[in-house]
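User: Design a sequence. Structure:
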């Protein structure tokens, strides 16, 4: 069945910030074949579609204005077994699968490796984009390779874990290969026994009832921590952490510590220290502050929220003000984690 291109569609239900803007053209694809047909059509009918944007669950985007081109919503689903042995299993997961549903599937089957990434919103296909991570685990730990379509040639091929150049909230798809590929599926290698547990975060330890938890118990603990800490986008529009945690030179950190003894930092090498952006923003007085229709959440200053009818520009202006105030106070530049569109 062919997918239908719709005109002038509100994007409000398609982004967790709940920004009400319009896409000039919008199409949902449910199979790779439908996606390829759309890409061929876009090529044939240029300049009708000045730009295309691939959308998953819309949980990591901020639309600044109406989108003039074609939004392709990736809803290609399916989970297939590629191979397995006694110890582990390789699964191919289509890009439009909901990430948390995939985590639940793994937990039901006792496949380990993604339990710490429970309850992260969005799709499997977007997960490699920023190497999603939480509670000491990143997707790079379990990705074997990523299947993509080259947007120029419409050819399909694989990108290995190494070629993905995964880093902290980053990958080749956000940098060198930005807008070059559409991810259509991801291959994961997961453990079937001897799961490698990561319970190093204090909050997880506190939430667990015993010292030798199962992956299901770890997931349950993480879900309850996340539900108590993060605003639910269904209740209040947001895109999770708006900024990345900045990585600064360790000697800059030491100097800051003299001036701000309470500053928190995590050394990631001899030269580099990671500083929690939420702490910096909070110390600039933003936590819980409401600015028009937007603001920094009362429990988590790193999460900017839409109190109802915020425009994308309004949220972005607040973000820029926050960036400036953090720079003025600490001399640290904080970068958005979220993808700004427009
Ligand atoms: C409440 C909340 C909590 C969050 N917690 C975390 C967290 O703990 N850790 C974390 O890492 N992130 C977190 N996030 C951010 C977000 O969930 C992830 O970045 C997620 O992977 C985004 O998936 P998505 O499908 O919604 O992507 P979208 O928002 O739809 O898209 C994000 C980007 O990926 C591109 N893209 C999407 N799909 C494809 C594809 N198939 N091919 C090519 N490009 C594509 C889009 O063009 C866009 O640039 C959180 C967000 C929210 C709202």
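Assistant: Done.
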């Amino acid at each position: 069945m062919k997918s239908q291109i719709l005109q002038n569609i509100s994007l409000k239900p398609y982004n967790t910030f709940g920004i009400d803007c319009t896409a000039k053209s919008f199409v949902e694809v449910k199979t790779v074949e439908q996606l390829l047909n759309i890409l061929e059509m876009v090529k044939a009918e240029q300049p009708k579609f000045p730009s295309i944007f691939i959308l998953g669950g819309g949980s990591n985007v901020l639309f600044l204005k109406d989108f003039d081109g074609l939004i392709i919503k990736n809803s290609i689903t399916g989970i297939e077994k590629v191979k397995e042995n006694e110890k582990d299993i390789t699964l191919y997961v289509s890009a439009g699968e909901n990430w948390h549903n995939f985590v639940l599937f793994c937990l039901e089957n006792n496949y380990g490796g993604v339990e710490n990434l429970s309850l992260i919103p969005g799709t499997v296909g977007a997960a490699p984009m920023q190497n999603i991570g939480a509670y000491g685990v990143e997707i790079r730990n379990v990705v074997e390779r990523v299947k993509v379509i080259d947007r120029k040639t419409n050819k399909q091929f694989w990108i290995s874990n190494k070629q993905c150049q995964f880093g902290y909230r980053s990958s080749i798809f956000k940098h060198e290969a930005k807008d070059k590929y559409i991810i259509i599926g991801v291959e994961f290698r997961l453990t079937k026994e001897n799961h490698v547990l990561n319970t190093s975060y204090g909050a997880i330890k506190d939430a667990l009832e015993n010292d030798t938890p199962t992956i299901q118990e770890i997931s349950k603990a993480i879900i309850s921590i996340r539900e108590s800490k993060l605003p639910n986008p269904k209740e209040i529009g947001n895109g999770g952490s708006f900024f990345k945690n900045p990585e600064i030179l360790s000697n800059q950190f030491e100097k800051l510590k003299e001036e701000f003894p309470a500053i928190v930092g995590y050394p990631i090498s001899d030269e580099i220290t990671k500083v929690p952006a939420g702490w910096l923003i909070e110390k600039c007085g933003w936590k819980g502050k409401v600015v028009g229709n937007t603001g920094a959440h009362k429990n988590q200053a790193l999460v900017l929220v839409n109190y109802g009818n915020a425009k994308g520009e309004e949220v972005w202006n607040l973000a820029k003000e926050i960036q400036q105030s953090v720079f003025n106070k600490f001399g640290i530049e904080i970068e958005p984690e979220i993808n700004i569109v427009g």
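Helices lie at 32-44, 99-108, 202-207, 215-229, 250-259, 277-283, 312-330. The mean pLDDT is 96.
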